[in-house]
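REQUEST
  id: r-88c1
  op: predict_structure
  target: Urea ABC transporter permease subunit UrtB
  payload:
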Amino acid sequence: MDFVVTTLLNALTLISILMLVGLGLAISFGLMNVTNLAHGEFVTVGAFAVYFVQSMGGSFWLGLAAAPIAGAVVGCILEFAIIRHLYSRPVSTVLATWGVSLILQQGLELTFGLGAKPVTPPIEGTLDLVFTVYPAYRLILIAIAALTLLGVVLLISRTSFGLDIRTVIQNREMAEGVGINTRRTYAIAFTFGAAIAGLAGGLVAPLAIVLPQMGVNYLANAFFVVIVGGVGSIGGLVAGSVFVGGLTSVLNYQISPSLAQAIVLLAAIVAVRLRPNGLFNGASR
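RESPONSE
  id: r-88c1
  status: 200
  body:
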């Protein structure tokens, strides 16, 4: 029972991380149809924000508050300088964001140097959950991820900004016709997605190796999550996160992480083949 509960909690931790990273990507890729290969670097920027604040003597929580702000700033600059000029040129967007990702990696490396950066979790202890003992910080991470997802769902479904986003997605020309500033809506949505990715980076920093290249792995998994679950759907995002995160966690106990990643990729390809519109959205073909 101890092994089963621990495995489930580890899976839930990874699912929570992937859900946050995928949530930001779902906004840019799933809703705005922008293939942003620099999305993983928003995660990296968030992690380095926590490291920087702690290295200056600040608390983890102060660093975690700075993480989404750092992600939002980088995302806003990227959208204003590059993305908004390439909405109608998807291939150019891919190339441009790939170049930006390399620039950000090298910039972080030049600023903070080589080698992994240590980030201390705010709580070091464990909690007794009857069937097992589990790190308290991981439980906090799961709770924050769940609250963030709930907040985004409420933002999209219950606010005027959420209505603007849904209107622009369904018909951009009609949205402009009724007076919605589509450029402003896209800019805010992209920046918001970058902020969520920055938050994900801040949360995962105590559990991961904080390096300038750390965002690459999260980018690949986030694309798996969004595509497998179903593009443009919060339910699909959750389904994709459970599929990728759950399968990865279970396989990591049995085989090497590299082989586990390969099997997850193969499973994702099979899932997309059987359900092209996603696990949550579409019917099988």
